[in-house]
Hints:
132 residues; CATH 3.100.10; 2 domains; four-stranded mixed beta sheet; elongated
Amino acid sequence: MKRRKLRGSTTAGRGYGKRARKAGNRGGRGRAGGGKRGQQNMMSIRAHEHRYSLSLEKKVPLNLNNIERKIDSLKKAGTLEIKDDKIIINLKKLGYSKVCGRFGKAKPKIIVYGTASERARNEILSAGGEVV
């Protein structure tokens, strides 16, 4: 009875069976080989690791400086409300998680429904707005 042969199964594509099948041929398993002079390589490998945050919420900040530029387009889209010369921004409606940063030249009065960083909160309050 003939033995069925699969192409490269015993040789791992190297021709000789014992020489190239195990992990020593490729430098070890996993993160092996990062010690001594190769430690700088380990740093570059770790730079590409993906780290998970505890919350599953996607964090998208809205910069106060960008609000001035976006006011007109958001008015046209109908996602902004204006009452008593104050612009009402609902962050969840717009798809943002929090407000951060500083105002640019203009300081509009804003009412923000959502969270804001400490600096952004101070900027909004000094301009006569609110953070709810």
